[in-house]
Design goal:
By secondary structure, this protein is α+β, with helices and mostly antiparallel strands. It has a single domain, classed as Methylamine Dehydrogenase, Chain H (7 Propeller), CATH 2.130.10. Helices cover 20% and strands 29% of the residues. It is built from nine helices and 30 strands. The strands form seven sheets. A five-stranded antiparallel sheet has the order 1-10-9-8-7. β7 and β8 form a beta hairpin. It is globular and about 95 Å long.
């Protein structure tokens, strides 16, 4: 055994002294004699088990790849040193033919790969849109869509003087009734409806179903029949538990292409005439209409210049107003060719949302990054003339109209927020407005509809209520927007996501109706929508594509 150094000997001695000292102190026995109970171990932290996505066998998707370049040295053929002149000539001719064929195949493959990355402007059927779905799933989707086309289900609006009370006790009674109905909402179904972050949502008005449409970051539409019976799926442990299964049935359609962030679906609207078709807008500058009757998706508008942020349609359904990131509004008459759409430059900054007054459809509400919320009279806008072209009206031309005597009343109301206005919408009566802003404030207006017939500005355009609400969503969460419940038969109220993982519901008077939360919810429910016919129904979606249906627990 080698002899230890002086340092090692001293170290061993220190270890021995410390061990003896601990044995003499006998700390464990001393604590027991003093009567101090041992510190309890913390209870293990339980966390809600996430939804187990259905394990479906998907069809392989065709991946188009251009042929890779190969080394000329590796491709070099071994030449027979004894070949004759005729054999050499034949070999060189074969090489030339082979190279020509390979070059042609390479060009065709590159062209095919390039076309696969471009937006699709042609008509698309359900089989093409759902290229990852099995034939049986496409068939069930077709049946589900056609099942809601039995009745017209037009968009309903309320009278401008509906739910207008001059006595506070009547307003309080309506708020109390809403609280009674909405505070009991619980999670009754949840599923990962889209593959990526949810950007937009719309609730179909069919009263007997909970059919919700979600648009995601990569141009995909998730169609969720939230209360349909679903197949049981085993979890990671091989157990089957309804609590952890996905609720209902869902289908995913790639409506906008390519599947990238350039194709994010910014808004979804149903046809206001019969709700038998769905309009979707994408950051790729296209608007498509999916018919539930034929199962065909058709492009109705496209723009190479502007990134589309939102759309809205009046009750008549023959026209559409489109907002874009260039600060403009486009008027599209669906009965005319799309190249006759008129573009109006209204702002130098992005217009995030446009909303059409349901009872006075000539009033347009815009929310802009210029911090301004404005109400425009479209009858004045459509009389504008400009030298830039018959269908293009610059911001300068619009400003000249607004400042002229001829354009008096073009802007009926204007209000400056502290920061960018992220959204603004009319309520179903066409008299209430709710806006959200990055200054962390929700603002409410209640306008006098009897002044709408005047051709001058509104006598007062100041919000009567300001609600503090954190709207700093950052990069990874969809912008929070306050969305009115479209049901005209109930006291007006709206929903908005909360960064504390709850769903907030407020009345048109600014009263907090309900703040819904659950242990299952571990992410911000940024996108919200409500059933147009059933009061006790809300749906929400988050940044991972997971969606939730809120309803009474006995549903």
């Amino acid at each position: 055994m080698p002899e230890l150094s002086a340092y090692e000997l001293e170290r061993e001695a220190n270890i021995a002294r410390n061990r003896a000292l601990l044995q003499e102190l006998d700390l464990k026995d001393a604590v027991t004699q003093l009567g101090i109970p041992p510190k309890p171990k913390p209870a293990p932290r339980t966390r809600a088990k996430p939804i187990q996505p259905a394990k479906k066998v998907k069809r392989e998707r065709e991946v188009v790849e251009a042929p890779r370049r190969q080394s000329a040295r590796l491709k070099k053929e071994v030449v027979d040193p004894n070949e004759t002149a005729a054999q050499k000539k034949q070999r060189e001719a074969e090489q030339k033919t082979r190279r020509r064929i390979e070059e042609q195949e390479r060009i065709e493959a590159e062209e095919k790969a390039r076309l696969a990355k471009r937006p699709r402007h042609q008509e698309l059927d359900l089989t093409t849109l759902g290229d990852k779905l099995e034939d049986s799933e496409v068939s069930s989707l077709r049946s589900s869509l056609q099942a809601v086309t039995n009745l017209p289900l037009p968009k309903r609006t309320a009278a401008a003087d509906a739910f207008v009370f001059h006595e506070d006790r009547k307003n309080e009674a309506e708020v109390k009734e809403l609280r009674k109905r909405l505070q009991k909402l619980r999670i009754v179904s949840r599923a990962k409806v889209t593959e990526d972050r949810v950007y937009s949502a719309a609730y179909h008005p069919e009263a007997t179903k909970d059919l919700v449409f979600f648009g995601d970051k990569h141009g995909q539409i998730g169609i969720w029949d939230a209360r349909a019976p679903a197949d049981e799926v085993e979890d990671e442990d091989g157990d089957i538990s309804a609590d952890h299964n996905e609720g209902g049935k869902y289908w995913r359609l790639q409506c906008h292409w390519p599947a990238s962030s350039k194709s994010s679906i910014s808004s979804i609207k149903f046809d206001p005439v019969d709700a038998h078709s769905l309009f979707t807008t994408s950051y790729d500058g296209t608007i498509r209409r999916l018919s539930f009757v034929s199962g065909i998706s058709q492009e109705i508008f496209s723009s190479d210049e502007h990134l589309i942020t939102s759309i809205d349609l009046p009750v008549g359904g023959n026209e559409m107003w489109i907002s874009d990131a260039s600060g403009g509004l486009t008027h599209l008459d669906l009965r005319e060719p799309k190249d006759k759409a008129c573009w109006y430059g209204l702002s130098g900054a992005k217009i995030g949302t446009v909303s059409i007054n349901p009872t006075s459809p000539h009033f347009l509400l815009t929310a802009s990054n210029s911090r301004l919320l404005k109400v425009w009279d479209s009858r004045k806008l459509q009389k504008i003339t400009s030298a830039t072209g018959p269908y293009q009206f610059s911001q300068e031309a619009v400003e000249n109209l607004v400042e002229s005597k001829k354009g008096e009343g073009t802007v009926r109301g204007e209000f400056a927020h502290g920061k960018s206005v992220s959204s603004a919408y009319w309520d179903p009566r066409g008299r209430g407005i709710v806006s959200t802003s990055y200054d962390d404030t929700i603002r409410l207006w209640d306008l006098d509809a009897t002044k709408y017939s005047s051709s001058t500005n509104f006598p007062s355009f100041t919000p009567f209520s300001r609600i503090r609400h954190n709207c700093q969503t950052g990069k990874w969460v969809t912008i929070l927007r306050a969305i009115w419940n479209p049901n005209p038969d109930v006291f007006p109220h709206f929903t908005i996501g909360n960064l504390n993982h709850s769903l907030d519901i407020y009345s048109c008077k600014g009263d907090l109706i309900a703040r819904l939360s659950d242990s299952w919810i571990t992410a911000t429910q940024a996108v919200t929508c409500s059933h147009p016919s059933v009061v006790e129904r809300c749906a929400t979606g988050n940044a991972s594509g997971r969606c939730v249906l809120w309803a009474p627990p006995d549903v």
